[in-house]
Hints:
Elements: H1 2-7, H2 12-24, H3 30-40, H4 49-57, H5 59-62, H6 78-96, H7 103-116, H8 129-139, E1 143-146, H9 156-170, E2 182-186, E3 194-197, E4 208-212
Antiparallel strand pairs: 1-3, 2-4
Amino acid sequence: MQEHARGMRLAKQQQLDLCAMHTRESTSSLAVLGEWAREKFALEKAPGKSSVKRILDKESSLKLVAVDFRCRKKIPRASMVALDSCLVEMVLCAEQEHVPISGRMLMILGRLYAEALHIPVSERPRFTRDGWLKHFLRRYGLRHRRGHGEVGSVDLPVVHKAAVALRKKIAKFHPNDFFNMDEAAFFYKTSPTSSICLVSGPLARSRRTVCLS
């Protein structure tokens, strides 16, 4: 019964839509508004009269809810909003500087930020991989993405044009003038191939190349 009650809870934006409907149809009864909400939001059961009345009474406070949180049924505490803001800003900064971040590193940073923000231990997330980390990434559209190599950065039209010019240049040489060459490279700035980010970027390709013939 308790799970069913939780399922009937409306998100903040849905509650605002219900208030707007009441403003447009001020003569509608609470039962009619509840039935409208059931059809509008595809609910299994219409909210009760007391629930509708409670939503209408708090319309002024609902309008103060930040747009970013209106899709939620429960508004997070200010301390959790501050923690998320710090971590998202850090992830975006690391992405811009091409610094890879793993899930384990993000959980460690979460604990450090929670300590720095003086969040009470009883209010802190548990920082688990299958719990907090999964929901945090989903909330902000972050994913563990694999970076791409040079192939992902190639401008194909430019490559095709250069290949034609190279073939013309090679055609001027006699076949006896060709020799075999082996190329080896040392990537001295290589980094992990994947990271938590919004958009995957190119891997660091700085290298020293040695050619043997």
